[in-house]
Design goal:
alpha+beta; 4 helices; 28 strands
Length: 549
């Protein structure tokens, strides 16, 4: 047996040849692989073809309407040569592609109505037979007429049969009216039905008979994934441990079900466009005066900078061939870190129905040795909160997402995780630390004037913060407070003498926020004294403004 040549598809433009026979083929296809992005998805369908020589059109009429027609790409291999020409897509017209479920329902309702018509005809015939039983000719029957007792029995039987027949006819007619309404609604919906599917038409030319498998890849909207994390902190033992588990929460409302597919999630964002937006210049002009407005007779309107146009959806490249085979379980995904993206190939095969809510799939995880800190902002709340800090040590970045918190096996709440790349510091709060006691006391609050002739006003604030460690182990406590920040040259802010110097100022880039880091042994306590003095011209009033960075 001679081996046949296995040739790859030639993706070239087909020039029609005179006299070539053309035929349409509708091969069945199924979704084979899906790559989900944070803002879209790439779907790969696989279908088998067996084509004679000549020009043909392959029609795939079960694509979703959310498919991007410009992203259709065909590839594959087989025995023989096949040249692919144009790949077009259009929406099937309602007369061409009616909703099969609606048509099936309509046929079932019509069949049920016909059955009711047969039942009504049978009941009417039974009623006529009962009426014939009590006809005068039947009762008299010549010289052998029925006696009174037999006549009474005939009348009772006819009465019973007639009532039962009328009741059955009335119920059947009521059911028919309901069926007529349902039939009319479905018929009207089918006539006004928008297209539910997109049709792809692939022009091909086979120089010789061709048999093989092809794939159709396209981008779809209404599909996305968001990261979700489980953070499990264990404080018992010689050192704390933090298990950080990554999950991909996938939602898809594409209009097609992904059944038993090789699933991959990617961090690439495909809907943001390919270039940075163009920033227009900002030009300043003097505001037009009232006199000029009256002279011109018009009312000028402020102009706004034009908003950039929404970037088109760009198809992503499918990485489905890297998907691992095996059963679907709580296992790690295969991570592929490229130059600008990370992909996670989910083990086994996955099924995701369209519009069927969200599904969270584990894509990674690891154990981290965090530093534990009890943080408190006593001027707002004297409750200390346990916080785990660590440096992200992986090349795969942490994407922002929701975090489910667990402390020593108990659910501790939810928070959000900010984006982090390698060596970035990550902070996660795990709820109140009830073993740390904090007190916030106001020591002094005075207002006054300075100078023999009052030319300025002063204001002083002094506070005492008391920390106590009731835990059986040493704790590091971080206390945050604030110093006033001035944006006016005449306002002077200075710390009071004898105060505890903060270890950090302008914490995390927040102006005026100061912090102290204190190591407390079990049962130990510590005082922090904090205060300031304000001075400003006496003829002016100051107004504190919160929330400005």
């Amino acid at each position: 047996m001679k081996p046949q040549r296995l040739a790859a598809l030639t993706l070239a433009l087909v020039v029609p040849t005179a006299g070539a026979s053309a035929a349409d083929f509708r091969p069945p296809s199924q979704v084979e692989a899906v790559t989900v992005f944070p803002d879209g998805a790439s779907v790969t369908r696989r279908f088998a073809v067996d084509l004679p020589a000549g020009e043909h059109v392959l029609i795939l009429d079960d694509l979703p309407l959310t498919a991007d027609a410009g992203s259709l790409r065909v590839a594959g291999s087989g025995r023989g040569d096949l040249a692919i020409g144009s790949v077009d897509a259009r929406q099937a017209r309602p007369t061409e592609r009616a909703d099969p479920q609606a048509v099936q329902r309509l046929e079932a309702l019509r069949d049920e109505r016909l059955s009711l018509e047969d039942a009504i005809a049978a009941e009417r015939m039974r009623k006529r037979a009962a009426e014939a039983l009590i006809a005068p000719g039947t009762l008299s029957a010549g010289e052998r007429g029925l006696d009174v007792a037999a006549a009474r029995q005939a009348l009772a039987a006819a009465h019973e049969v007639t009532l039962a027949a009328d009741r059955a006819i009335r119920q059947a007619e009521q059911r028919q009216r309901g069926l007529d309404r349902a039939i009319a609604e479905i018929e009207a919906a089918l006539k006004a039905q928008p297209p539910r599917r997109m049709e792809a038409r692939v022009s091909v030319e086979a120089g010789a008979p061709f048999r093989g498998e092809l794939t159709l890849t396209y981008a779809v909207r209404n599909a996305r994934w968001t990261p979700v994390y489980d953070a499990r902190l264990v404080t018992s033992g010689p050192r704390p441990a933090l298990d950080l588990i990554r999950r991909a929460e996938i939602r898809q409302q594409t209009g097609e079900d992904w059944a038993d597919v090789a699933l991959t999630v990617s961090t690439a964002r495909v809907a943001r466009g390919g270039a940075v937006p163009v920033l227009p210049p900002l030009v300043l002009r003097y505001q037009e005066t009232e006199a000029l407005r009256d002279r011109s007779g018009g009312v000028p309107t402020p102009s706004a900078l034009p908003a950039p146009a929404a970037p088109p959806v760009r198809p992503g490249r499918s990485n489905a061939e890297a998907a691992m085979a095996g059963r679907v379980a709580e296992t790690e995904a295969a991570v592929d870190m490229g130059g600008f993206q990370a992909t996670f190939a989910i083990p086994g095969r996955t099924t995701l129905a369209s519009g069927d809510g969200a599904r969270a799939i584990r894509i990674g995880g690891g154990t981290i040795a965090p530093d534990l800190v009890s943080r408190v902002v006593p001027s707002i709340d004297t409750t200390a909160f346990l916080e785990a800090r660590f440096r992200h040590g992986e090349d795969v970045p942490l994407m922002p997402g929701r975090v489910n918190l667990y402390r020593d096996g108990l659910f501790a709440g939810r928070t959000t995780l900010a984006a982090a790349t390698r060596d970035d510091e990550v902070k996660l709060g795990f709820g109140p630390d009830d073993l740390i006691r904090v007190e916030h006391q106001v020591v002094r609050r005075t207002d006054g004037s300075a100078g023999l002739i009052s030319t300025s006003r002063t204001e002083e604030r002094e506070f005492r913060i008391v920390l106590r460690n009731g835990a059986p182990a040493a704790r590091r406590i971080v206390v945050e407070d604030r110093m006033p920040v001035t944006e006016v040259q005449d306002i002077v802010v200075e710390p009071l003498s004898g105060m505890t110097a903060p270890g950090a100022r302008d914490v995390d880039g927040r102006r005026g926020i100061v912090s102290w880091s204190v190591e407390l042994a079990p049962g130990a306590s510590r005082d922090i004294r904090h205060g300031w003095r304000l001075r400003w011209p006496s003829e002016r009033r100051i107004q504190p403004v919160e929330g400005r960075m």
